[in-house]
């Protein structure tokens, strides 16, 4: 139990049908560490998060969280596992029929039997932590994208999780909101001591806040290292990704399924 | 190639039959899941009460107004036909029996499906499309217990009450036309009804019908929402399917139930 790695992937493979998304992935995330998983769109980053939360199960290999295999948990164990976990969805996924207060109170009310006064105090504390204490009575539709993301963050940390999963937390935010969310993620990770996994393709902001980075490409880990190591990396792939170059080891053009001659029935002619 | 083209409709028929049976199986499993998770939602009854408000109370206007007009039309048509045979006195019985046995449960269920069933499908489908159901499940809260079961029970509870209200308004509409407008004898109107309507045979059976309709419509509505493709087009076609399937199921089920009951 004194093993420091809190989340561990051991030779994990996962695919939908014949299409393999993740192939033989092994990685470790230590207690209290904030780790970024980077890679292009469709590289299997979100799949990795879903494996940790147990929404999908690995077809091969093990996903260990605190020494327990998530893939072998039954429904009840899975729900117990999820109670220790917070997840920030790409677009917040706030309950649109509930005001901000009830959204943040939702996990607290569902999983504890605290008095309404306690719930209120907790919710206001969490809202205060994300700097939006004044918004408790607003409906999600009245919030800006950045605010909604922060409220969703407050909801995700409502029960002081041991694991935080962030699914593209920076997508579609203006620079100021983006910086705010990044700051909050860093602050919360430090304050709560959670192990956090952040899936993202925002390179620069992420490298500022995370402890370690894994790059995923083609379902495999293409590179890994601390932010400094990654910046100094001479791998052409990492270089292309970090500098956002259109062409390089990852090609600009999507490989054609069928040759042009083939689509006109001329192949072999 | 020719044979392939000829066989295509047959293949299509087979494909849709298998799909339909598969869906029926999924729906039965879904119903079992709802029942298995109902304990929790019945314990926290305020969740169900909230849904009764949205599905039932907010349907009152359409049910009350439609019931009134259907009753008035029944009064007019019934009077025209009955008076040809010199039995206009039986109008009260005609209005009450048609409503209690058939029109009340069936029309209320059709209205309920298009007003509340479609809303349930759209709401659950949109919750799915915006990852709210997934978020709930990741927060270790089962969406079937928290979102689906309360809506299901709200529908099952609301339907017979709405049908009963539809009947009351319909009978009142028949009274307005028959007695107030046409001028039939009030005593005859009510006593004919009293003599010919049996509490158990007509009233209770009608309510049992609407209970079955409530179960069917709400199950279809929540299932279609839960099963919807999480896109705008997916939610829209799921909503349409709810209304169409509910209407067909209500009418088919009505035939079966009538055959057994009366």
TrEMBL record, chain A:
Recorded GO MF terms: ATP binding
CDD domains to which the protein is assigned, alphabetical: ABC_Org_Solvent_Resistant
InterPro entries noted in UniProt: AAA+_ATPase, ABC_transporter-like_ATP-bd, ABC_transporter-like_CS, P-loop_NTPase
ABC transporter domain mapped to chain residues: 7-242
Top-rank taxon: Bacteria
Swiss-Prot/TrEMBL keywords: ATP-binding, Cell membrane, Membrane, Nucleotide-binding, Transport
A Pfam family of this chain: ABC_tran
Protein name listed in UniProt: ABC transporter ATP-binding protein
Taxonomic source organism: Vogesella fluminis
């Amino acid at each position: 139990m004194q093993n420091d790695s809190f989340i561990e992937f051991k030779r994990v493979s996962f695919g939908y049908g014949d299409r393999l998304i993740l192939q033989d992935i092994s990685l470790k995330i230590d207690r209290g560490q904030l780790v970024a998983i980077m890679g292009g769109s469709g590289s299997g980053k979100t799949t990795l998060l879903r494996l940790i939360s147990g929404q999908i199960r690995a077809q091969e290999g093990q996903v260990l969280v605190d020494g327990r295999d998530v893939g072998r948990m039954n429904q009840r164990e899975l729900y117990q596992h999820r109670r220790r976990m917070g997840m920030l969805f790409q677009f917040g996924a706030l309950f649109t029929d509930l005001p901000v207060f009830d959204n943040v109170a939702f996990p607290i009310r569902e999983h504890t039997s605290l008095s309404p006064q306690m719930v209120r105090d907790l919710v206001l504390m969490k809202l205060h932590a994300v700097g939006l204490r004044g918004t408790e009575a607003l409906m999600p539709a009245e919030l800006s994208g950045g605010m909604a993301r922060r409220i969703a963050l407050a909801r995700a940390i409502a029960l002081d999780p041991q694991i935080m999963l962030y699914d593209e937390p920076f997508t579609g935010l203006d620079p100021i909101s983006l910086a705010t969310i990044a700051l909050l993620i860093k602050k919360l990770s430090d304050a709560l001591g959670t192990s956090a996994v952040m899936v993202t393709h925002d390179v620069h902001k992420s490298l500022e806040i995370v402890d370690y980075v894994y790059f995923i490409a083609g379902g495999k880990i293409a590179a890994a290292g601390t932010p400094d190591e990654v910046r100094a990396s001479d791998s052409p792939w990492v270089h292309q990704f970090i500098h956002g170059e259109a062409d390089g080891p990852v090609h600009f053009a999507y490989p054609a399924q069928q040759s042009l001659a083939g689509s006109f029935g001329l192949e072999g002619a | 190639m020719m044979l392939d083209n000829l066989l295509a409709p047959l293949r299509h028929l087979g494909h849709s039959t298998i799909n339909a049976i598969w869906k029926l199986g999924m729906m039965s499993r879904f119903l079992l899941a709802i029942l298995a998770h109902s304990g929790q939602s019945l314990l926290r009854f305020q969740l169900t009460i909230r849904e009764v408000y949205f599905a039932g109370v907010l349907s009152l206007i359409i049910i009350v107004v439609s019931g009134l007009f259907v009753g008035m039309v029944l009064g007019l048509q019934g009077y025209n036909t009955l008076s040809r045979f010199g039995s206009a006195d039986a109008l009260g019985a005609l209005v009450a029996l048609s409503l209690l046995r058939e029109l009340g449960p069936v029309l209320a269920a059709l209205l309920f499906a298009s007003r509340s069933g479609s809303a349930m499908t759209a709401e659950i489908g949109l919750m799915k499309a915006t990852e709210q159901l997934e978020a709930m499940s990741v927060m270790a809260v089962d969406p079937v217990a928290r979102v689906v079961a309360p809506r299901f029970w709200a529908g099952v509870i609301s339907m017979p009450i709405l049908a009963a209200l539809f009947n009351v308004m319909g009978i009142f509409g028949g009274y307005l036309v028959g007695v107030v407008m046409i001028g039939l004898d009030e005593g005859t109107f009510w006593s004919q009804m009293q003599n010919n309507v049996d509490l158990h045979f007509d009233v209770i059976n009608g309510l049992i019908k609407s209970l079955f309709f409530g179960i069917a419509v709400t199950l279809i509505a929540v299932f279609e929402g839960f099963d919807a493709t999480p896109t705008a087009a997916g939610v829209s076609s799921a909503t349409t399917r709810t209304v169409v399937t509910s209407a067909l199921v209500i009418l088919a089920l009505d035939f079966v139930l009538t055959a057994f009951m009366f």
